[in-house]
Design a protein that fits this description.
By secondary structure, the protein is mainly α. It contains eleven helices and three strands. A three-stranded antiparallel sheet has the order 1-3-2. Strand 2 and strand 3 form a beta hairpin. The protein is elongated, with a radius of gyration of 20 Å.
Length: about 280
């Protein structure tokens, strides 16, 4: 895959390429004040004893990561530790620990004397993660179709009950379908029986979640997901490994192509829908 960079200036810059222009729009937010009002928390955190600070930091970390994945916080948003602390009703220590962990994971950055900022999308990184996802999932479906390999058939039957359904029984809620889509791919990999492969795949899934969920903001992509999942699953259940892998590659590539079209405007529309 070829990396993309945002070298064009904002405004009336010449169109370099579709992908480069999309990257530019997604990574260069409109001018905003140093700090924006933070959204209300997804849930309130109760008081905590000092001995529980480590687990509290984990709770804060999970909450902030979820806020980013659910577009409550979007690329370019700025905030301070004090604002997060006040919003969640916790001390700054677990907040700081959670933010440093998010920084290591590539979600936020610390600004000199200016608090923190949600990082712009890194499309080079997403390309690499999608490539890794492709390798893991196609390997998994090949393993699932090997006649002598023990696989989790119960898990596959559960997928069939959700995805091999009549058109009028399909779920139409975009957030729910996004969650079901993640579960479909994670279940395929886990059912293959390689725990290390499943662990790496879960990590990849977490890292691409925010960008992947933007793929489910339009109804046609939901219908396409049902159709494509059904074909992949039918091939797996029939033991046609190469066919299943080819369908899976096409499915992931289609999702990857949608990622390349993402603009900052879409992200802010998604935030509006999440509120």
């Amino acid at each position: 895959m070829t990396g993309r960079s945002a070298q064009a200036a904002p405004g009336g810059a010449p169109r370099e390429s579709h992908a480069a222009n999309a990257y530019h729009r997604a990574t260069m937010p409109d001018p905003e004040p140093d700090s924006v009002p933070l959204p209300p928390p997804s849930f309130a955190l109760p008081p905590v004893e000092p001995s529980e600070r480590r687990s509290r930091a984990s709770e804060v970390h999970a909450l902030l990561k979820r806020d980013i994945a659910d577009f409550r916080l979007v690329p370019g948003d700025r905030f301070t530790e004090g604002e997060i602390s006040e919003r969640l009703g916790v001390s700054r220590t677990p907040v700081r620990q959670a933010l440093f962990q998010l920084q290591q994971e590539g979600f936020v950055e610390v600004l000199f004397r200016s608090g923190w900022r949600v990082l712009p999308f890194d499309f080079d990184r997403f390309e690499q993660l999608y490539d890794l996802r492709m390798v893991l999932e196609t390997t998994a479906v090949h393993r699932l179709c090997e006649p002598v390999r023990l696989t989790d058939r119960t898990a596959l039957d559960g997928l069939a009950a959700r995805w091999l359904v009549p058109f009028d029984q399909r779920c139409r809620d975009t957030a729910t379908v996004a969650q079901h889509d993640e579960a479909f791919h994670c279940t395929l990999v886990a059912a293959a029986g390689n725990t290390e492969m499943a662990r790496v795949h879960r990590d990849v899934t977490e890292r691409i979640r925010i960008i992947r969920r933007l793929d489910f903001t339009r109804q046609p992509r939901i219908d396409a997901t049902y159709d494509e999942h059904a074909r992949i699953l039918t091939s797996v259940l029939a033991g046609r490994g190469e066919e299943a892998a080819q369908l899976l590659r096409a499915h992931i590539t289609a999702s990857q192509d949608e990622v390349r079209k993402i603009t900052l405007h879409q992200v802010h529309l998604a935030r509006r829908g999440a509120r």
